[in-house]
């Protein structure tokens, strides 16, 4: 695709496929040993394998762009990724699997399917969700619409849903189960809305709710009025069918549904948001659940003993539910064979395989409020809002409408779809529409034509139309989404749905990203610090980082940092292009990232060429991301487009000055330094071009070297901001309320 300017003065968008990815890792993971710079020749990696293996699970998403095929992201375990960053190529091939060629320009799918066995015979659907067996909608949910258009089987591994064979129920016949959920609303079907189907949970009697809900410590999760936000101490209320602990007319049941959630599974900013926003909503008094696939064994979560069966692309699949109650939030992990063992490759596989996973996930997630009794009580479908995220879960609003609200069910449930990155849309051939098990007339919501993708089915498009409200992660990005250059083919849909879209800048999880308490700064010579101890603290962290990376330990040399996915979006190649100029400066440069193979090679090459100045760490390391954020003086973000951007927020919270391309959320969050008014938070440049980056860096370095007081005031302003999720959660709450009263 071509690049184009969003506006005359800003934002050149790089319109090639950008995927996100990053391995995440478990919080409190151990920090790997410092890498060792060998100065080895071209055939050797630059970093020695660490003597200790970090516990972080890592997800390394490969980035691909350009035309042709869609390349799936890649990732490997954190340890593997860390090791891969330092070991010779041959060893890396073992740990980083399935590197792919560039993909379709849009859609965070895998590459074109290589599987070729269309097992339509397996469509002898034998099971279905028993909850649905009790009511008419069963035929919608568990069986494909019999009137569905029959498209020729594309010959992929995905199985066409059977329209001929009625699914059977293999779980016990459903018995009515009183639904509890949001007090005062759930279970109240006096408005003529029939209660949704429910069924007894397997092993319910043996399930110890106290174990999951942290019954002993409900204090943290109280709102201003002292009302428990988490439902933890509300069990008795629910048991008595009392009104429960949640108070206030706008308190709601909220279910956040996403493909990733930090610290369990993270490939990028989506994981960060899903790990943090729900907690902030819970602090405001809402009852909040996160639903995410269970890609690995997460020690915090326990099997709830519930078994259900769902059909995905013609196959009946068993689903189990794992639960953890942390910081006032119910985390529900969906366990199914399709998700297992994907921890290091959550977006891996062919496009059809990813599609199948997401179909299953969305079908399961939309019924979680009926089937999963968190704290002993289901959320129920009254006063309920789903928050779906990106194309992966954009089918949820569609299923909610097609299966339920169109049939007079779940009338008090709303859906919000959050756009974190519109560059990935879930595009596929129209012929695959039947896999989604939707009524024939829903096809029109998916069908889209654009010069890039031609005639295709677009999941994000359908989700945007079906969702009651839409949020994107900054106001600047919302504006860009309406442009031809920034909408990636969906600009018309965004424009026509403008009335229901809000731009809300992400926040920071202050438990994770806070120099005062950052666990990754507690060893190896680093230190925690605050605004009051900024000078000494940053000096110490900088020295520790230089030591850890084998750079000369000097306080007077400005240390520039870059952290991010290596893809077209993040503009790391622009830093590469600026290297001749950077090499002529008295600076040090540390880059951490993983993704596209050519950009990974670029990082290694730059280090090889400038061993005394540059470190290029190829891999995904959460501890190193924290340490660079603390130890660097400047964080460089030349992103071609950036819906919000989290690293610049983290940088400012750590007294690290951002230099950014003024686009999307970067423009919204980094006010340019004004030396005359002594205002501003960093430096911005108006085009993602090398000369613009150099110009901004020149001003930045000049201030660093010659205007110490101004520099300190920029740092102080950055650190003094309230970047917490609490503010963002308040804005999300407005959207929840708008959705609630919207018909
Ligand atoms: N190699 C590496 N090792 C360790 N950590 C790494 C890493 N590479 C990246 N990370 C971490 O991953 C996160 C990336 O955050 P971004 O905002 O850049 O996300 P991304 O572009 O994936 O997300 C999309 O969604 C988010 C959330 O809405 C938007 O902010 C963003 O603009 C949009 O593109 C940060 O926490 C960063 O530290």
TrEMBL record:
Residues 62-77 have a biased composition (Basic and acidic residues). This is starch synthase. CDD domains: GT5_Glycogen_synthase_DULL1-like (cd03791). Residues 19-122 are annotated as: Disordered. Residues 78-88 have a biased composition (Low complexity). The keyword Transmembrane does not apply. Pfam families: Glyco_trans_1_4 (PF13692), Glyco_transf_5 (PF08323). Its EC number is 2.4.1.21. Residues 253-495 form the Starch synthase catalytic domain. The keyword Plastid applies. Pathway: Glycan biosynthesis; starch biosynthesis. InterPro entries: GS/SS, Starch_synth_cat_dom. Keywords: Amyloplast, Chloroplast, Glycosyltransferase, Plastid, Starch biosynthesis, Transferase, Transit peptide. One of its GO terms (biological process) is amylopectin biosynthetic process. One of its GO terms (cellular component) is chloroplast. Its main location: plastid. GO terms for molecular function: alpha-1,4-glucan glucosyltransferase (ADP-glucose donor) activity; alpha-1,4-glucan glucosyltransferase (UDP-glucose donor) activity. It is found in: Plastid, Amyloplast; Plastid, Chloroplast. It catalyses: [(1->4)-alpha-D-glucosyl](n) + ADP-alpha-D-glucose = [(1->4)-alpha-D-glucosyl](n+1) + ADP + H(+). Belongs to the glycosyltransferase 1 family. Bacterial/plant glycogen synthase subfamily.
